[in-house]
Design brief:
N-terminal domain of MutM-like DNA repair proteins, 2 domains, alpha+beta, Helicase, Ruva Protein, domain 3, 6 helices, four-stranded antiparallel sheet, five-stranded antiparallel sheet
């Protein structure tokens, strides 16, 4: 599943192409892409066509495009919100470009400077989604997410916590949350209501860097250890962003269809049986709630040891 770095790469690629653009038309080819939308495909097409896109925003793994109000001088009240799911892609294409494989929805837009473009939502496994959603005030009064200044976020995103790279992220709040959790630290890092944007890949990488076993109960971590986890999470996310995200196959690409290359920098995730870059002992893989955890048994001592 695309995590914070991958979704942010997509957001940053979309922003200059869509901000200020008018939606000329929408074509829904597969209504499974609208599972979060309250209406059908025809309603979605009619509701978005003719609207002006005000920007591109992200919180955690969610993207949204605020839509300018229909009435002049009114405040924005709606946004086109998307989640990439397991294999969703948002691609920029030339107007009239041939359909993409697994294309679900296409937006034809006209930008004041860039001219006409197509924004294509493709999704092989159909777990991603698009919806027209209302914007609601943020609980902390800070901007809704990366890419916007307004203290508004889609209602479907309002319950999602801030991510560690968000200027409004509360480190004190994160520490308090961990101190109350009996759950394993990895489970807490994956809880999007505690901290957003971190998935399996970056949780494993951050815990390896912090030398903390993924099954360590969060509340047992010292203040210094929590600080180390947070510092490594930020470092890993920033490095992955700089390298365009992690691509293991063709399912994650940026808006131009290019893969990220952070997979070459992974130290633990996906490296089962390979030597730990720190100590040389083989990386192990264990089952973890329908996923897998990858760690070094020497560098990341089990809490039961």
């Amino acid at each position: 599943m695309p995590e914070l770095p991958e979704v942010e790469v997509v957001r940053a690629g979309l922003a200059p192409a869509v901000t200020g653009a008018t939606v000329l038309g929408v074509t829904v080819l597969d209504e499974r892409a609208l599972t979060r939308h309250s209406g059908d495909g025809a309603h979605f097409e009619a509701a978005v066509t003719g609207r002006v896109i005000g920007g591109a925003a992200r919180r955690g793994k969610f993207l949204w495009l605020p839509l300018e109000p229909v009435a002049a001088a009114a405040a924005p009240t709606e946004a086109l919100v998307g989640h990439l799911g397991m294999s969703g892609q948002l691609l920029l294409r030339a107007p009239g470009a041939a359909p993409e494989r697994h294309e679900r929805v296409r937006f034809d837009i006209a930008h004041p400077q860039h001219g006409e473009l197509a924004v294509v939502f493709a999704d092989q496994r159909t777990f991603g989604s698009l919806a027209l959603d209302e914007l609601v005030p943020t609980g902390d009064g800070a901007p809704g997410g990366f890419g916007v200044d307004a203290a508004l976020a889609p209602s479907q995103v309002a319950h999602i916590a801030r991510d560690p790279l968000d200027p409004a992220f509360s480190e004190a709040g994160f520490r308090r949350a961990l101190s109350r959790k009996d759950s394993a630290i990895k489970r807490v890092l994956l809880d999007q209501t505690v901290v957003s944007g971190i998935g399996n890949i970056y949780a494993d990488e951050s815990l390896w860097a912090a030398r903390i076993h993924p099954e360590t109960p969060a509340r047992t971590l010292s203040a210094r250890a929590v600080g180390r986890v947070l510092a490594e999470v930020r470092h890993v996310l920033e490095k992955a962003l700089a390298e365009g995200g992690t691509s293991f196959d063709a399912q994650y690409v940026n808006v131009n269809g290019q893969a990220g290359y952070f997979a070459h920098s992974l130290n633990a995730y996906g490296r089962t049986g390979e030597p730990c870059p720190r100590c040389g002992r083989p990386i192990v893989r264990v089952s973890f709630t329908n996923r897998s955890s990858h760690f070094c048994p020497r560098c990341q001592r089990s809490p039961r040891a």
